[in-house]
Design a protein that fits this description.
2 copies of one chain form a homodimer.
Chain A lengths: L10 H9 L3 H10 L5 H8 L3 H13 L3 E5 L7 E5 L1 H4 L2 H16 L6 E5 L4 E2 L18 E5 L1 H12 L9
Antiparallel strand pairs in A: 1-2, 3-4
């Protein structure tokens, strides 16, 4: 049933073949490339209409895409990325770059995203600190964020045994 | 059959609930958090042993994890991220930050990754140009990379109709 992408010259498809389910992010990839119409998504992805309908409804329900009526003689919907969807650009870029490095290898990238101003490929996306420099792994720590801290607050506010020192 | 993550206080889980399959990247997330043993992955993820076995084998076959025999009284395997696996840190970080912004919202992040040197959360990962500044969308262009160009070379080298001008 699953269409396999392991021969596709697309680093995103190949990264997702390794990393998990792919339809959803591939729909988003195509939306970034300007695809808007159901028939165009269906043709480009070689996806069954059933599955595509479900995924588009899923992405629309989650506010990643919005369906816009572009019909002249009756309704015809096109799908646009919302702000939430456009904000996946970094994720798509990172997945593509990962696939470029590890699936195809340097010098064998199927696609390049270039900066028109320099004519050169976008540099690798990195996790940087506030000073704009890469953060060494040992300098990072995972801590509970506000949501988990709030959830734990009631327990923390219970009376606790007094410390021994006065 | 699918365990749903839509109530989990983890932005990565929630992003993947929206974006597609999740087990694979959640195994990698846990590996980044120091999980190494089969039983620990199984317990943390609440995943069936069958599925976990399959996914670990998949990730090992793709060189994302490596199985290391850590047994004293007979073999016992632990799973470590390879260089290829560690290089997913940026992808995991971007997915977490996306979920932080769009699923939980600012001020409600379940976890924060901080820079110990400043005590503050890592800044948002961005696609930057060679000058270290964000690249405007209109300055980006998608072009065929070396792999696609090479694949097209034989066709391009066929004799073509001569241009009209001499």
């Amino acid at each position: 049933m699953r269409r396999r992408f392991d021969r596709e010259p697309c680093s995103i498809a190949r990264s997702l073949e390794i990393l998990g389910d792919w339809w959803t992010l591939l729909i988003i990839r195509d939306a970034f490339l300007g695809v808007r119409r159901f028939v165009d998504f269906a043709q480009r992805l070689g996806i069954s209409k059933n599955i595509l309908t479900r995924r588009l409804a899923h992405l629309t329900a989650h506010g990643v895409l919005v369906a816009v009526d572009a019909g002249v003689h009756g309704p015809r919907y096109e799908y646009e990325l919302t702000a939430k969807g456009k904000d996946l650009f970094t994720a798509i870029t990172v997945l593509r770059q990962w696939g470029d490095r590890w699936v195809f290898g340097p010098g064998h990238e199927p696609l390049l995203v270039i900066d028109r101003r320099t004519g050169r490929p976008l540099p690798r996306v990195r996790v940087l600190g506030e000073d704009g420099q890469p953060v060494p792994r040992e300098a990072m720590a995972v801590v509970p964020g506000p949501r988990l801290s709030a959830a734990r607050a009631p327990a923390a506010s219970k009376p606790r045994r007094r410390a021994r020192a006065s």
